[in-house]
Every structure is written in structure tokens, then in C-alpha cells.
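Q: Start with the shorter request: fold the first protein.
A: Done. Sequence, then structure:
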Amino acid sequence: MPGQGSRNSVMAIVSILVIVAATAFLFWYFKGRGDNPAAARDLSVVTIDIKTNKMYLAVQKKGESFPLEHPKTGERTLWAAYVCRDEKILFPVQPGTMTTTCPSCASNMVGGATKEHRNYRVVMPEE
């Protein structure tokens, strides 16, 4: 049959183009999925100064880790603040650790504190 070879060549080229396009799309689609978008910018965070036991709103700069530097003292005494939703308290979380329970009531209704929690009482965990 005349033209059969050229038809196969066209189909092969189309198939290769479809595979390349699908690969490019999948790469683009999944490219940023593992990235932490929060790490790409400065964040306003709720912290607790472990020396004064006071809550502060601070800026965590891109790439900076806890403890943060206190803007007034220059010391790295600002720890991440967590909130217990049952007790309505704030408490500091030691850098590098993950807290899943409240140090006051052992509730698991805890999470990162936000600006909405700024009027909650600060409770320091017992050592």
C-alpha cells in the first residue's frame, strides 16, 4: 500500500509529541507540590518569650528557624506559641519538638497559635 510508511512515520511523531507534552505537563503540575510555600516568604508568627513568659507577634524571616531573636533584647528567646483550644491558653513549644497535647490539661486540641489567640493567658510548661 502506498503511503503506509509515511502514515506510520506521522503516527510515530504524533505519539512522541503526545508523550513529551504529557511528561512536560506532569512535571509542571507536580513541580511545586513538595515545596513549603510558607518557607518562601517572611511570616507573622505568634511567639512566647521564654525569659519573660510574654506573648509577642514576631516576623519569622525566610529560612529562619526557632528560637527567633527578640527585637528588643537581641536574644534568641522567642519560641513558637501553641494554643490549647480547651483551656484557652498559650504555651511555648521547644524548638525542634512537636507538641500534640496541652501541658496543662493533656487535651489533644492543640495547634499553632494565631493572632486571634493573642488575649489568651500564657502558661509555661513545668520542666
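Q: Next, the second protein, separately.
A: Sequence, then structure:
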Amino acid sequence: METQPNHRRPQPEGSAEGGSHLLVGGAMPSTYEISGALSVKDHFRHVHAQRFAETIASPANVYFATDAVAHALVLRIRGALNDTEVESIESAVAELSQKWARAGAIFQRVRYGVRSFVPVGLVGHLDLLVVLADEQTQLEAILRRQARILEQFMPSRRGLAARGN
């Protein structure tokens, strides 16, 4: 896949790789980025991704790639965006995924350097992804508690130094 900055390139509609597309709004510091890959329906085409990118390209830089064989869409949207623009973009991504996704996916979001994850896709899959994320959070808390308990079994460093070890 090739990327061509600062201008649009026509892509072959039936090719295995639907091509890449980069819309650049100018060099600006990024306060927001969302990125991820989405499994899309068989009749999703590169032109659908292109239309989507054109609707939100004004406040942000949009990169996307499509693959007609794997039925996949990869998105990366970034820019120096205010809260209203971020909400608009996330709403547009949710709408796109509700219309075209074959399954749920988890996109990565970075806002002012803070990383988080956004579930997108089919509603039923989103519910399961949220449950899975909650389970992961609970598991991480349990593992931290276990580590603290196990540390209590370790001899202290002061005790080792006093014994000459």
C-alpha cells in the first residue's frame, strides 16, 4: 500500500488492496488521535472510506487503507481538536462502524497523551467487548493484590544486609 500526502489519488476499485489515502490539513500539533482496524461487510468499497474521510477531514488529518480481499478498513484520525470536534469524529466513527462493520473492534484513542480504548462495531459485539474490558480490569486488580501479598513473603533487603548476605 502506498501513501501519497497532500493530494488525492484514484485507486483501482477491484484491486486486492483498495489503496491508501491521506488527507493532510497542514502541520499541526496533535491533541487527539484515534486508530484501529475494522472488519467490514463484503460490499464495502474504497469509495465508502473515501467519502467518510472527506466528511471529517476538515478539522483532522485522516489516513485510511482498505483491503477488498480481507474486507478490512484501517483508520487513523488525528489533529489538534477541541472537545466538540472529538465528539463529532467519534460519533462519525461509531456511525460508520454500525453501518459497515462485520464484528466489533477496539480502537486506540490518545487524547492529550492519555491512552484509552474505544469499542466500535456491532452493538452485540460492543456489549461483549465492554464486559471483557471490565473483566480485564478486575483481573489486573487481582494480580496487583497477589503481587503485594507475595512481596510480603520476600525477605526485606534490610534484613538481608543485617545478616551479611
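Q: Describe the second briefly.
A: The radius of gyration is 22 Å. The beta strands are 17-23, 32-39, 61-67, 72-79, 105-111, 114-120.
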